[in-house]
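Good morning C.,

I know you're traveling, so I'll keep this short. The sequence:
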Amino acid sequence: MLSGALHRALDHFAIWTEDRVHRAPEPCVLAPPAPLACFGALPPLPATAPREGTWSAPSPWPLAAGDRLWVRATPASGPRRGTALLVPPWKIRRPELVSGWVALLARGGWDTWLLSPPYHLERTAPGARSGEGFVSLDLARTRSVFEQFVMEIRASAALARARGRVALVGLSLGALGAALALTGPEPFDAGALVALPSLARVLSDTAIGRRYRRLAERAGSGWPAGSDFAAALAPLDPAGRAPTTHRLLLAAAAHDRVATPAGALRVAEAWGLEPAVYPHGHLSLLFACGAVRRDVASLLAE
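The tokens, ready to paste straight into the viewer:
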């Protein structure tokens, strides 16, 4: 078993490698804490979706002309229970990185739909890296991206619901979009959030936040106090909303240095949940923790 120091070192190494990537200066622009606009009526949906293979449809909340959502569908490998939507981590570059999660869900009897978040995988801008542009220091823009993200999760779930039960599993920043979707008007049959971050805490309290601070300073921008970040990002805090889904697992990593466990624990308290805390870091919880995968599988087997 790895020590806490090694779990933390893995997280620090991942942040260090991201710090080596050149990024243009970016001013920090706060936004009024307006409520999210992505919980209204869903637009018309495609009639059907394939059980296997990659498929696409117009985004129900396009941020640009021609914007499309993308899904990779893997059929259940056992007796079918329903459809599980899997929302991957930030900056995932290849779908194979979450193949273990896809296999876990499929073995449990779930047709598994791996969603491509905005700016990721097929949706990456030309010449950019997968995920770049998803989070911006223009907080109004970041909020718009999350509104699109949540609406796409809700629309995908509505399409899957025509075939029966629907579960939602979110990983890392994908868990933030999933957490917000779990407070939407359509309840899921179950939801699991693994390494859920708080954007306000990440930007204020972590090495990732220090990277963004440097970008803002290079752009000649001031850096707001943590309380100002929290106020501007309050609409993106699931703790401020009540879940409509009742069978939930919220998994946090005790040694998390990417998201910190504090944000997840705050959501658990607000939602009246007992969080599952594992002796791992952010990356090792996502990719090397058998216990959290067993717990997710148990939740979805009920």
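Safe travels,
E.
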